[in-house]
């Protein structure tokens, strides 16, 4: 997981914005993406990005791409040294990997995507490449926490029906969603063997981008790849 530190973007995107769709200078975003690739020891052409749309479409890639995957919120590969990236600024970045099969996935799970099952769709694509849920390791990355994610009661009830375990309350006792809690339960129910949670809240943690806190801000990235 990246933070907002260590890049070249100027305010309000300072400084390590990796989103190319938020109004930042394209040359700054490109420079930041090169820094990310260098930081993980891969060439820029080994990073695969998505055009995220809050859906459940899954892309399976078998090599580098010159452009982001169109209208995609999960990407899967079994190619060693090919890194998959997911951009977030309050939504949940979900990184999945079966170290035995060498199959990895990066998933963008916002409220809409989580509700319609983008994570189970990614797991299904991983299984088609030889992954087994019991061997999969998952990380639920930094996201808006339940104490900060107030929603209308009807919305909370609707998401809870589709993603059990996500309904909660804010500090003030208002209806809220904890998407990471719901996704944790969903992964456990799917038989995923190991689930880790990065507890940082994007709204509370100033080293992370948050659209709810600062509309029009940048994006952090979660990245996963399999070594040779």
UniProtKB/TrEMBL annotation:
Protein name, per record: Purine nucleoside phosphorylase
Record function comment: Purine nucleoside enzyme that catalyzes the phosphorolysis of adenosine and inosine nucleosides, yielding D-ribose 1-phosphate and the respective free bases, adenine and hypoxanthine. Also catalyzes the phosphorolysis of S-methyl-5'-thioadenosine into adenine and S-methyl-5-thio-alpha-D-ribose 1-phosphate. Also has adenosine deaminase activity.
Species of origin: Saccharothrix algeriensis
Lineage: Bacteria, Bacillati, Actinomycetota, Actinomycetes, Pseudonocardiales
Disordered: region residues: 1-22
Catalyzed chemical reaction(s): S-methyl-5'-thioadenosine + phosphate = 5-(methylsulfanyl)-alpha-D-ribose 1-phosphate + adenine; adenosine + phosphate = alpha-D-ribose 1-phosphate + adenine; adenosine + H2O + H(+) = inosine + NH4(+); inosine + phosphate = alpha-D-ribose 1-phosphate + hypoxanthine
Keyword Cytoplasm: no
Keywords: Copper, Hydrolase, Metal-binding, Transferase, Zinc
Alphabetical list of NCBIfam families matching this protein: peptidoglycan editing factor PgeF
UniProt keyword Transferase, yes or no: yes
Domain of life, per lineage: Bacteria
Protein family according to the UniProt entry: Belongs to the purine nucleoside phosphorylase YfiH/LACC1 family.
Cited InterPro entries: Cu_polyphenol_OxRdtase, Cu_polyphenol_OxRdtase_sf, Cytotoxic_necrot_fac-like_cat
Listed Gene3D superfamilies: CNF1/YfiH-like putative cysteine hydrolases
């Amino acid at each position: 997981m990246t933070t907002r530190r260590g890049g070249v973007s100027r305010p309000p995107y300072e400084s390590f914005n990796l989103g190319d769709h938020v109004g930042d200078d394209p040359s700054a975003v490109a420079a930041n993406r090169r820094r990310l690739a260098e930081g993980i020891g891969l060439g820029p052409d080994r990073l695969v990005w998505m055009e995220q749309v809050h859906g459940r479409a899954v892309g399976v890639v078998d090599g580098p791409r010159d452009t982001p995957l169109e209208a995609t919120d999960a990407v899967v590969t079994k190619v060693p040294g090919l890194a998959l990236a997911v951009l977030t600024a309050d939504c949940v970045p979900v990184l999945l990997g079966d170290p035995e099969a060498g199959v990895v996935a990066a998933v963008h799970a916002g409220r809409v995507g989580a509700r319609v099952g983008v994570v189970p769709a990614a797991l299904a694509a991983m299984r088609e490449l030889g992954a087994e849920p019991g061997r999969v390791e998952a990380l639920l990355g930094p996201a808006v926490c339940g104490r900060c994610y107030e929603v209308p009661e009807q919305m909370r009830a609707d998401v809870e029906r589709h993603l059990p375990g996500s309904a909660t309350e804010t500090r003030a006792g208002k209806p809220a969603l904890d998407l990471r809690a719901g996704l944790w339960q969903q992964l456990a129910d799917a038989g995923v063997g190991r689930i880790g949670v990065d507890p940082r809240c994007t709204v509370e943690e100033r080293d992370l981008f948050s659209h709810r806190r600062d509309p029009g801000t940048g994006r952090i990235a979660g990245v996963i790849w399999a070594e040779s």
